[in-house]
Amino acid sequence: MIILRRVVAAAAVVGATALMWSDRAVGVWQSIVDVALRSNEAVTSTVMESRQWGDADLHVAVWGTVAVCVLLALPSPRARWQGLMCLLAWSWFVELAQPWFTEIRSRQLVDAIGNTVGIIGAYAVMSVWARIRRSRGNTGTFFAGSERTEGLAAGER
């Protein structure tokens, strides 16, 4: 199970990097916006016209999802913390390197901040979720490797 989680985490990092370094990401996002505008134009047009942050919310969602995959793949709190710091640095590098790989995207501080918010937000949500599970006595295998240190294995120590 741990190996599968690590493969999924690596695929998520590679996928997010490819998405951020491709011109297709802008087209996909524009298609989503167009569908939203067509389906309920009265509500969505005023919201879309007043957006100051561009596609920063997409960056929050993408990098937050990647962070969840990374958190679930790492076995200890220290490894999760180090993994998130590496992911944070990588997401900023991806944003800085965008002009090298795509013609229509550029470096934007707002997008890098969106990356950071997504990663830190995922960490916060996952930490609260883990604490709630622990307080209810349902430790299970929430994080990779926890089956070795919690749950039934804890009773054997």
Q: Could you walk me through the main structural features you see in this protein, from its secondary elements to its overall organization?
A:
The protein is mainly alpha-helical. Helix content is 78%, strand content 0%. It has eight helices and no strands. The protein has helices spanning 2-20, 24-39, 41-49, 56-73, 77-101, 109-135, 146-149, 152-156. Helix 5 runs antiparallel to helix 6. The two termini are 23 Å apart.
- Approximate shape: globular
Mean pLDDT: 80
Q: What portion of residues belong to β-strands? A: under 5%
Low-confidence region ranges: 147-157
Radius of gyration: 19 Å
Separate helix tally: 8
- Measured as a percent range, the helix fraction is over 70%
What structural class is derived from the secondary structure elements?
mainly alpha
Secondary structure: number of strands: 0
Largest sheet: none
Short characterization:
With 157 residues, the protein is mainly α. The chain has helices at 2-20, 24-39, 41-49, 56-73, 77-101, 109-135, 146-149, 152-156.
Secondary structure: elements and pairs:
Blueprint: H1 2-20, H2 24-39, H3 41-49, H4 56-73, H5 77-101, H6 109-135, H7 146-149, H8 152-156
Helix pairs in contact: 1-4, 2-3, 4-5, 4-6, 5-6
Features of the shown structure:
157 residues, mainly alpha, 8 helices
